[in-house]
Amino acid sequence: MSPSPIVSIVIPTFNREIVLIETINSLIELEYRASEIIIVDQSIDHSEPVTIALEELHESGQILWLRLTTPSIPNAMNIGAMKASGDIVLYVDDDIVPSSNLVFEHANRYLDSEVSAVAGQVIQSWETALPAEHSSYRDGNERDPDAFQFNSSTATKVRRFIGCNVSFRRTKLLQAGGFDNNFTKVAYRFEAEAAERFVGHGNTIVFEPKASLKHLKQESGGTRSYGNHLTSLNPSHTIGMYYYYLVVKNQNKRWFKLFTSPFKACITKFHLRHPWYIPVTFLSNIGGIIGAIGLWLKGQRLLSKSDIHGACPESREDNVE
Question: Mutual orientation of helices 190-200 and 239-247 as an angle, nearest 10°?
Answer without folding.
Answer: 20
